[in-house]
Amino acid sequence: MARGKIFIKRIENTTNRQVTYSKRRNGLFKKANELTVLCGAKVSIIMLSSTEKLHEYISPATSTKQLFDLYQNALGIDLWSSHYEKMQEHLKKLKEVNRNLRRQISQRMGESLDGVSFEDLRSLEEDMESSLKTIRERKYKMIGNQIDTHKKKVRNVEEIHRSLLHEFNAIGEDPHYGLVDNGGDYDHSIIGYSNGGRGILALRLQPNHHNLHTGSGSDLTTFALLE
């Protein structure tokens, strides 16, 4: 039974395309090896897949460079010289671009202005004014960000200050605020602000004399605030 003719076109399915590539590549390399063994031919095959993977077949005891040299001798051309000339031409263009950039930088620093035409000077001035405008806008934006950050810090400090004043005012209104009888031999002391937060007041930590003389249970004794 004869096989149907296959219509050659790109395989859209990625997996099927890769499988077909691998099978046909191996078949091609097999045929190249048969030519080398049967006929003594020197064969070199270089392939790049759609995924940019390199596959290469070289006849045994042969290198790619040797085959390229044989190819050049057969055609009477020098591939390396042609490639070198292209590289030199590209290098020449890069040097010209580098010279132009250096000249532009020097002119923007107020140097190398001799021989520059009036139109070029005016164009240079416009470019520098545009650059200066962009720099100023960036500077003002940074200053604005710093001011906003400073304002936030000030608001946080003010909130902390109001909270402390509220707490210290509560301490001033209640002389027993924060004092706890723990049954020990020492009275508790507190530190706080009084008179609207204008002075620092403290309670001394002193032995409870009543407990020392009588040996009785805990007795809470308060002392006058000292400036």
From TrEMBL:
InterPro entries xref list: MADS-box/MEF2_TF, MEF2-like_N, TF_Kbox, TF_MADSbox, TF_MADSbox_sf
Keywords: Coiled coil, DNA-binding, Nucleus, Transcription, Transcription regulation
Domain of life per record: Eukaryota
A GO term, aspect molecular function: RNA polymerase II transcription regulatory region sequence-specific DNA binding
Pfam hit, one: SRF-TF
GO CC annotation terms, alphabetical: nucleus
Residue ranges constituting the K-box domain according to the UniProt record: 84-174
PROSITE patterns assigned: K_BOX (PS51297), MADS_BOX_1 (PS00350), MADS_BOX_2 (PS50066)
Coiled coil regions in record: 84-111
First-listed, main subcellular location of the protein, grouped into a coarse class: nucleus
GO BP, one annotated term: positive regulation of transcription by RNA polymerase II
Localization per Swiss-Prot or TrEMBL: Nucleus
Limits of the MADS-box domain: 1-61
Membrane keyword on record: no
CDD domains attached to this UniProt entry: MADS_MEF2_like
Protein name per its UniProtKB record: Apetala3
Native organism taxonomy: Eukaryota, Viridiplantae, Streptophyta, Embryophyta, Tracheophyta
Gene name of the encoded protein: RkAP3
